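Forwarding the complex inputs:
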Amino acid sequence: MLVTGIGGLNSITRVVTPGSSAAPTAPAAGDFGKVLADVAGSAMDALKAGESTAIAGVQGKASTQQVVESVMTAEQALQTAIAVRDKLISAYQEISRMPI
Amino acid sequence: MIDPLRAATAIAGSGLEAQTVRLRVVAENMANANSTGKTPGADPYQRKMVVFESEFDKALGAAEVQVKGTALDDTPFEVETDPGNPAADANGNVKMPNVNVLLEMADMRDASRSYEANLQMVKQARSLTTMMIDLLRNT
Amino acid sequence: MGPVNLFDLVSRHVSWATFRQTVLTSNIANANTPGYEAQDVKPFADVLQDAGMAMAETSPGHMAPVDGGGSTLETADSGGYETTISGNSVSVEQELMKADDVNRSLSLDLTIERAFHRMILNSVRTGT
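Prediction (whole assembly, three chains):
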């Protein structure tokens, strides 16, 4: 999860940063929206799973280890999505500052 | 119990209880090591032993120890000659309890050590759980 | 039980757990009192069920009062451990084990609450 999260962020920054030489693994411009949706979707899934495991853990139906693992995963996914969002916003601001 | 560490704590807890019962019985035996009967020819204090049993607990998925009860030791009584004793029979013999103090002391030490071992298990399980929960503590 | 709010559930559980700690502490304090029977509170699942039914009757804007589930104290099952001649049925080891478990679950509750609170703050904060 950690690796795919960072990988997702990496692919976004490569596309967004202007003038970067496209590496063979960088997605084409058309896949940009798909990558965004993937990152957001997996963050939502991880958050939902984390919340339901936490609810089970509070009631004593899940083990401590399961709760800790799923909440950590949720937090990592959320941080990744937040980083993506922040990067998008700063990229948009940079673009809007470009002289015509 | 889904959480193995909680199960470990519960099992160690059953061990702690069992060892306290054992210590109590040892104390009873030692205190009564010289308790003869009251009437002539009567039986003296009979040594008690604890009976432990391993019981499989489905909720935990593991075997807990249960105290099944106390049993009486059937070792024959020692006979001493003490004509002045209220429990002396026609020949002046008194039956003494079948308690060997040295044996009880060894039993006591063993029970204490087992108690400490179980307690150590509980502390260990607690510290592991705390470490696990601490993973979520800081950013 | 329908969709549950995590913070609401954790808050109820913390109330229940702290109340249970009080009961267990008084059990241990009365370990030698003649005639004292060990007490425990209703299981948390029962407390939730009662609260769930209560919520259905009042208006949606109301939160059911959290009394820690202590409205009914039960006499605990001594679990095979003996009651002494003086009528005292407290097993100190059992009470301490229960107290240890309550401590663990309280610690987990508060840590879960902190983690999710942190996540919400992070998502609301702007990073640019």
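The two ends of chain B are 30 Å apart (CA to CA).
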